Amino acid sequence: MNRRNEKQPERLKDNPPWESVSPGDWQDWRWQMRNRITSVAQLQSLIELTAEETAGLEECLRRFRMAVTPYYASLMDRANRKCPIRKQAVPDVSELEENEGDMQDPLHEDVDSPTPGVTHRYPDRVLFMVTDQCAMYCRHCTRRRTAGTHDRPLPPTQIERALGYIAGNRQVRDVVVSGGDPLTLGNDRLEYILKRLRNINHVEIIRIGTRTPVVLPQRITEDLCRMLKKYHPLYLNTHFNHPREITPEAAEACGRLADAGIALGNQSVLLRGVNDCPHIMHALVKKLLRVRVRPYYLYQCDMSRGIGHFRTGVGRGIEILESLRGHTSGLGIPTYVIDAPGGGGKIPVNPQYVVSRSDHKLILRNFEGRLFAYTEPEQSRSECHKCTDCSKCPENAREGVAGMFAGKTPVRKARRVKTDSPRQVSSR
Ligand code: SF4
Q1: Which is the closest atom of ligand 1 to the Cα of 137?
Q2: Domain final position from 37, 65, 96
């Protein structure tokens, strides 16, 4: 166990629940996991709650799980109901409301699952959910139908079946190890999975999706980083939603991962009352770049049941993107996407910059609203589709709209992913 920073953070001083916790315990991720806040009584000792809020909370907890690490809870504002940290951690009675279009599994992760723990939608990549446990159960979680159901890792037999599925499908070159949160597994168990994946020749890259740098930065120990760096090329996407989440502890955790050569990306979710503000997003992306995390996606909030109160209009996201492009480095601008309900995958919904076009001119507008004409060359026809690289290109690379440019007819029905094993998976 590494305990690099044995100092107690300032905010814990004079904070009754934790002022007596030793720095060693506080820095120990397993202590943080064991001492997660899971009951209304524990919450009452941390934040001010009205009788009405308490009743709502109790009702929520009958349907949805709550767990908050002491670390993340220590960032909450005791008195402010609108605190963005509190909103992501503490259940709200609105979670019990049904909203138009709410779905149990909007992304069809279960529909596209050939074996428990695996979602295979795109031909060359799979999602491998190795546990349903998370350090914190985020109130806006799109996977709330599964996250925390058992609060433990996938059983070994299912892990083996999932690894067998990936090994048997040679077109899978990219595996996203997710959950739940895969970094709630101990190093040995996680290393077993990474080693097995790395031994599959056709798996080129491994990506880890984890919120621990945000809600449990103590998990990012030197031991963990030493283990992870054996399995490059390895990417890690995390999930900061608000600049206040980038604390010195979180920054240190990201620094350790980056020092291990792991490319870091961030996937934020646009959340009403948390970060649906151009100034907050601007501050977030700038702070992310300072801690060596590249803003990757900004997700429109999904249509999962119980999170409708977090959803904003799509226009809010577009306005936020307008406030970023041209106003900060391009490196800090995430792609704004809707993960299409029904398993349609991620669809970018960014602002439009092409205002009009003729057969040889494009009229573009920049971030200030000024118009510019770009003249296309007289001889602009590309020889590309006839080149040798194109003719050798695997068939999959030119499906959908890209395939139409190459003269193929569009796919009209749900297609099947070709597999090397008898099991077939629908890919929408
Ligand atoms: S860490 Fe991710 S999977 Fe877990 S509850 Fe939060 S958003 Fe959901």
Answers
A1: 5
A2: 96
Residues 136 and 85 in one domain: no
Catalytic residue selected from 121, 139, 144, 211: 121
CB 239 within 8 A of CB 214: yes
| Inter-CA distances, 392 with 36, 296, 395, Å | 54, 31, 9
pLDDT value for 421: 38
State whether 80 and 182 are in the same domain: no
Choice among 60, 72, 92, 138 that is catalytic: 138
The residue ranges of the chain whose pLDDT is under 50 are: 1-5, 413-428
- 134 closest CA partner among 253, 200, 38, 6: 38
Instruction: Please write the tens of the pLDDT for every residue from 256-282.
Output: 999 999 999 999 999 999 999 999 999
168 and 21 within one domain: no
Integer angstrom CA distances of residue 327 from 73, 276, 282, 330: 33, 17, 9, 9
Mutate to test the pocket of ligand 1, among 87, 95, 141, 267 (most ligand atoms within 8 A of CB): 141
The per-residue pLDDT for 167 is 98
Residue type, 160: E
Q: What is the pLDDT of residue 289?
A: 98
Regarding whether 170 and 81 lie in a shared domain, the answer is no
Please say whether the dihedral angle defined by the alpha carbons of residues 391, 393, 399 and 405, taken in this order, is positive or negative. Answer: negative
pLDDT score of 98: 85
- Whether residue 127 lies inside any domain: the answer is yes
Q: Is 25 inside a domain boundary?
A: yes
Is residue 104 one of the residues assigned to a domain?
Answer: no
pLDDT tens per residue across span 148-166 = 888 999 999 999 999 999 9
Residue 113 domain flag? no
Contact 353, 364 (CB under 8 A): yes
What range does the domain containing 60 cover?
Answer: 10-96
Residues with CB under 6 A from ligand 1: 134, 137-138, 141, 143, 147, 179-181, 211
**Number of domains composing the chain:** 3
